[in-house]
Amino acid sequence: MCTSAIPIHVIMGRYLNFSFLQVGLVYMFNLIVGTGALTMPKAFATAGWVVSLSLISFLGFMSYMTTTFVIEAMAAANAQLRWKRREETDDSDSTSDYSDDDVVVRGRSEPETKPILSIQRSGGHVDHFDIAERVEMGQMASMFFNKVGVNMFYICIIVYLYGDLAIYAAAVPISLMEVACGNHSCSAGSVKYNDTDTCWGAVTRKDAYRIFLSVFAVLLGPFTFFNAQKTKYLQILTSFMRWIAFTMMIILALIRIGKHSGEGQPPVASFSGVPNLFGVCVYSFMCQHSLPSLVTPISNKKHVGKLVLADYVLILCFYVLLSFTAIFCFDSSLLHDMYTLNFTDNCKVLDIPVLRYFLGLFPVFTISTNFPIIAVTLCNNWKTLFHRDGGTYPWVVDRVVFPLITLVPPVVVAFCTHNLESLVGITGAYAGTGIQYIIPACLVYFARRHLEPVMGRDAINKHQSPFRHAFWVWFVVLWAISCLMFVTANIILTDTKT
């Protein structure tokens, strides 16, 4: 997958003098805890706290497992690339006309031309599985999958990115609509608005949402036609804003609960909300597609496995804390799809207008900076999917057609619906399942099969997943397929009843 954005941990490591391993923990947390976290409390309340706690814990474990699969596949891809270069160099050496004396002179004058082979031939140890070169998931798919598998990979990535853009395109106008149309008189916390309610004069809330969506598309849509670069300061700013906002929401909810003023009485279990919670959880734990940018810059990768495990434990605790404080602080029936909006019109929780507006507009700032990056990434993936070796696209196709097919569908979806819970649930349940479960399992399975004849069974991949047995690969695939069938059946049955 192609993207021109610089990872925030690389920025902090290079410009703020933090070690990559230290910053990696923060970056991975920041990477996962995004828009999905804002929709988690509503899904948590819908499914009941016992069912939600059990499911989110299990899905966190499954996501950790597939993350270790991707890291192992990255190491295997680096080994494959080193082996190919060695073969190419050996072939070129075997056909050269240099004499022994020439080789000695050449070795003295140009020692840097073959550093790997010189070490190998002198008896030095080379770790083939060292993750020194960034190999994106698309490149790994090209190395280990056949043509059909590669196309399926890009289709899955494209569907996921479309869902991501649709969620972003809906989240920003919803936040703007709630801030502009909401009742901020400190008595609106117990009011649930409808789309047909008045916003300004004859303009309904639904009309206001579509106006804000149109402005959003006009202002940020043109970035799709260019490359999104030099975003390091925006990423640092939005990262700090995200931490401040989440910390504020948790503390404010805890204070209200501590004062025995909480209105939440969540159900223990409600299995009707499980399918949507599944999609939200998968979406909320999504990081597998960004692992190459996260892991590769770390100089000392000895403790990467512990880093990933610590991150997932930390993220799981954060999600549980955020969701439990939300469902016991607010009435479950009044929880917004975007959790920040519960603080904008309820002065019982937050009576400082500036902070209420900050939380209400927080998704606008953070999501608006990510939208162009995701759009450019999707556009590049479209170009890669239809790429022909040695061929180039006409200017109109490259600069107009691909950006349009990137931008128009998610905006149209956002015009049709602004149900964020459903958008996140569907995106996570289908495309998210492919990226988080099926693709990592297939990558590690075929990577092992490709390398065994070349490296031998005795070759040790130091980044091998703790779940090295083939049982775990098949378990992940069967789990993903069964979940897709369950979610699809539930959607069909629900539509039939309605």
Automatic annotation (TrEMBL):
GO cellular component, one term: membrane
Membrane topology note: Multi-pass membrane protein
Organism for this UniProt entry: Solea senegalensis
Keyword Ribonucleoprotein assigned: no
Transmembrane intervals: 15-37, 49-76, 144-163, 208-228, 240-257, 307-334, 354-379, 400-420, 426-447, 471-493
Annotated family: Belongs to the TMEM104 family.
Domain Amino acid transporter transmembrane: 27-74, 139-449
Protein name: Amino acid transporter transmembrane domain-containing protein
Keyword terms: Glycoprotein, Membrane, Transmembrane, Transmembrane helix
Domain of life: Eukaryota
Subcellular location: Membrane
Cross-referenced InterPro entries: AA_transpt_TM (IPR013057)
Keyword Transferase: no
